Amino acid sequence: MKKINIAIDGFSSTGKSTLARQLADKLGYTYVDSGAMYRAITFYFIQHHIDLHSNNDVAEALNQIHLTFQDNIICLNGMPIESEIRGMEISSKVSEVAALEAVRIFAVRQQQMMGAQKGVVMDGRDIGTTVFPDAELKIFLTANESVRSQRRYDELKDKQSDISLEDIQSNLKHRDHIDSTREHSPLRKAHDAVELDNTHYSMSEQLDIAYQWAMECINRTN
After folding, report:
1. Residue 1 within any structural domain of the chain
2. C-beta separation of 123 from 11 below 8 A
3. Which are the contacts of 76, defined by CB distance < 8 A and separation ≥ 6?
4. Stretch among 14-28, 55-69, 75-89, 152-166 having the lowest mean pLDDT
């Protein structure tokens, strides 16, 4: 049976990674967390004090970065850094880093190579518009802003006891603005994407919907 590529885009904290991972597992596909790639790059930039306004510094830093996934865990130059990239320090900087043209070219090139053989579920903000414009299934995930903020707060509160819901809301608004207005590959719904508002859906319910859409696409392809 021929495999397809599935692109899942949407705003921060809509649950893109959770849905993409679960859908890939159910289909027996490869899951690629593009957001983790940008977070890993941001982590490297912060650790090495890279000046985001210096094209030379950014280019040199990217030449030192090698990203891979091992058991769906992002690795930076061979080292797993999943826990290091999920805090607010990275969240507060990742949209600025991801908006840089050189960074997007670097990441998109790797992402397209990962999907060349099909059978990939990838989530992000420009997967259906830039990375996989020919993806057989494109899902645009949305949710109410207050619900997104609460989900993100619940995810972080045990790891960062000093975090507040107001901090989360401010960060999401900031990221949404940058992601939607950046010059290179801004966040937008692809013209042929199907929209899934999961504000009132459980994870299992949204997975059932996405899986049904995927199987319909797979059956049409075959």
Report:
1. no
2. no
3. 40, 43, 44, 65, 66, 67
4. 152-166
- As a whole number, mean pLDDT of residues 43-69 equals 97
- Tell me, what CATH number does 86's domain have? 3.40.50.300
> What pLDDT, on the 0 to 100 scale, is given for residue 27?
97
209 occurs within a structural domain = yes
Per DSSP (E only), the strands in the chain are 6-10, 30-33, 67-70, 73-76, 79-80, 120-124, 137-142, 194-197
> Structurally, how many domains does the chain consist of?
1
Q: What is the 3-state secondary structure (H, E, C) of 80-98?
A: ECCHHHCCHHHHHHHHHHH
Asked if residue 219 is part of any domain, the answer here is no
* Residue 216: its H or E element: helix 203-221
Domain coverage including residue 41: 6-214
Q: pTM for the full model?
A: 0.89
Give exposure, 87-119, as e/b (b: 16+ Cβ within 10 Å): ebebbebbbbbbbbeebbebbbebbeebbeeee
Q: What is the mean pLDDT of the chain?
A: 94
Answer yes or no: is 222 within a domain.
no
> For position 141, what pLDDT does the model report?
97
